[in-house]
Please model this.
Amino acid sequence: MKRTGISRGSKPLQRKTPMSDGGAPLKRTTPMQARRAEAAPKSAPARSPLRAKARPTKARPAPRHTGPSADTKALVDARDGGRCVRCDAPANNRDHRRTRGSGGTNVEGINLPSNLLTLCGMGNTSGCHAWKDEHRADAIRDGYALPLNGPQVDAQLVPVRTRRGWALFLNDGRRVPTAAPVNDDASEAWAA
Model:
């Protein structure tokens, strides 16, 4: 009985299919590719980078400063003593309680001292800053963060659990000790 597509002998067996004659696979082109190939010029001159037209460069505007002013930074650093308000480690950043991403710098009071606090750690990778980002609900309960949505309250009215006890951060750079909020939950300040 003879098998179709298989040859025996000294050559290795090769499968013959309608798409292949046993040699190199056929290159298939779509009708659109064939039309493009016909319409394309046969030999396009190579463009030298020296002959390319130089595009005029636009002057970029200076980046807009959207952070707190130098005076505000000095007030926050003096208020917190250059230490993390949560664990008393040396602080290496000032963090917004209501994030700038929740409205940018158009939100009233976003760069005021009452909305800023010093935390240890770098970005969201280590220290209390990372803890605040990873445990958002606990950070809101302790006053380190303010809610992104819902009622927008004045940061001066929301107490913060600091290493020295509960305190209000005021816009004039003062820290005023205060009684613990109901259920030790700073969010009770705006829920009432």
User: Anything to note?
Assistant: The radius of gyration is 34 Å. Strands lie at 93-96, 116-119, 160-162, 165-169, 175-177. The chain has a mean pLDDT of 78.
